[in-house]
Hints:
The chain has 247 residues and is α/β, with parallel strands linked by helices. It has a single domain (2-218), classed as HUPs (Rossmann fold), CATH 3.40.50. The chain has helices spanning 37-53, 70-79, 94-108, 127-135, 188-194, 233-242, and strands at residues 2-6, 9-11, 19-20, 25-26, 33-35, 58-64, 83-87, 112-116, 139-149, 152-159, 162-169, 172-176, 199-202. Strands 11-10-9-12-8-1-6-7-13 form a nine-stranded mixed sheet, with helices on both faces. β6 (58-64), α2 and β7 form a beta-alpha-beta unit. α2 packs across α5 (188-194). The longest helix is centred in the N-terminal third of the chain and has 17 residues, at 37-53. The N and C termini lie far apart (48 Å).
Amino acid sequence: MKILVCVSKTPDTTSKIAFKESNTQFEEAGVQWIINPYDEWFALVRAIELKEKDPSIIIHLVTVGGADCDPIIRKALALGGDEAFRINADSNDSFFIAAQIAEIAKQNQYDLIFTGKEAIDYNSAAIGGMISELVDMPYVSLATLFELNGTTATITREIEGGEEVAEISLPVVVSCQKGMAEQRIPNMRGIMAARTKPLKVVEPAAIDTLTSIVNFELPPAKAGCKMVAADNVPELIRLLHEEAKAF
């Protein structure tokens, strides 16, 4: 069995976000980059758990990005991936990224494709569904549990007000979220092994970009807190009526 895990490079949530070129470009200087947590903690680790039960499983990783993505891919290999592809292109367009990954998937005939439910930078949650359409495979989103019995997967996913359990025959594309697995830290053996694992750089296919970023805008700064004395109820009521905003 072959599993493809899609990973992406995202800013650490502790990084200070700023923009340049009249708010048309993200300022990367000083930003700490990490593997998108939904890709790493849930999609990749669940694939590794499946491989631990069945060592014949092969795990491939794929990302779309420049050479600055290599450390991210090497960390994913250190966690337990067997081989990686980096599609040498820089784009924020979901369709372009999904189509490039689909080209890799078509060439290698995977039984299972895992993605994170979304990336923590743009939060579009679009890649998994687009890949499934492009490779003509069923798609299950927002999975919290994934069990495999032969070529049949039992998948639990969140729905409004509850959970849904589906049984589906492989191949399938699954987007993963909290509950699928627990975060792992690469050990020294994995880090050393990752240095020699294959990382193939692939030139992008000729695919049109459908969207572009016009500009970025930071949310408004938070206002300060107003303290009201415990015995000044009329003032509290006035503030709630006149100044408080509902969200």
